[in-house]
Structures are given as structure tokens and as C-alpha cells.
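Example record used in the benchmark description.
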Amino acid sequence: MSTAATQETSNSLPRINDPAPDFEAKSTQGPLKLSDYKGKWVVLFSHPADFTPVCTTEFVEFARRSEEFKGRGAQLVGLSVDSVPAHIAWIRNIEGHFGVKIDFPVVADLDTKVAQKYGLIHPGASETATVRAVFIIDPDQKVRALIYYPMSLGRNIDEVLRALDGLQTADQNACATPANWQKGDKVVVPPPQTIEDASKRMEPEFQSKNEVTDWYLSKRELGK
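Model output (C-alpha cells):
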């Protein structure tokens, strides 16, 4: 790949809170446009190639956890540079071997147009295959989180669900989530923005409702 092409690919990487690049492509469930999912969360994940061992284990786990994503109002969408017939053959093979139902669409991106929009072709890893990536896109079609993995490392589906839970919780409760947070744990109170607000964090009234470590770090239970 030329230097110019490499630069173009690098520049196309969406950043957090950027609009998710819209696309229209063929999929295993027919023509698909990202904008068709406006109003709901989307988990767009790429894989290097069909009929590869690590990708197969990931698809099995996404299929097994599909109802959990649906329960969070999220649509799973897979993607690679393979064709629709290759996707169909691979899905049938997975379903036959593992007894799971892959009920989400898998986009065919033979011309790599979608991969280029999302910065999924990394020449250092492969000049043709898409790297492992996850984009969590909110109902307004903004990129809220992105996670990249090397080809040798399979994804942790628990972490994808945790990230989705954290984003939804933060949006719904005007808060943040601490390290290792799990749904139901205490959340982080946004930091004070003035000297006066910082002083109030040390007062008994605030401390009676929150777990205060210091003026800049407080946690609370949701609903309080």
C-alpha cells in the first residue's frame, strides 16, 4: 500500500463523538444502511476473514449473547471483506458445529469501502484483511467507543457489554463509571466545576448521600 493510501486510511479513522460514517452495503440479511438503525444503539464489529479460528469463536459468543444486546436496545452488525456467499457458508458452518443461531447481519465489504471509512485496514497487520475492531454507536449515530485488537487476540464479549452498559448508564444518569465498573455498582459523580462546588463536597449534607474520598472523587448509588 502506498504512503498516500496509508495516510488516507489513517485519516478516515472515526474518533469518539464523531458522526459514525454512514454506508450502504450488501449483507447476509439483504441491503443494509447504517442510517436505518438511527434511534437505537449499534455494535459494529469487524473480523479479518471468514473460516478463521479466532473469528469463529467470536461469532459463536456474539451469537450466544445476542439476546443480551437486544435487551439493551442494541443491534449487532458484523463486517469483513469477504463476500455474502462466503459469509453465508461460514454462518451455516458455525451454526452446524456449535448449535447457535447467528441472527444479526454480516456486511460484505469486498471493495473495502466500509473498512476504509472506519480505518479497519492496517497495513502493518495486513494489506487486505480488516483488523478486529468494535464501534459502539449511539442512537444519534455518534461513535461513543471504539476498541481495536490485533488479529491474534479474540475479543471479550463481557467487556463489549460492559462498555455498552457504562455508556447507557452515563447518558441516563449524568454520571461516569469507575474502573472495573459493573452494572449495579456505584457510579462516579461528575467532578466539581467551581471552588464553591468543591467545598460543598466536604459538607455533611453531600457526604450523607455520597461516598466521598476527597473533593474531586465521589461515588453514589444510582437512584440517590
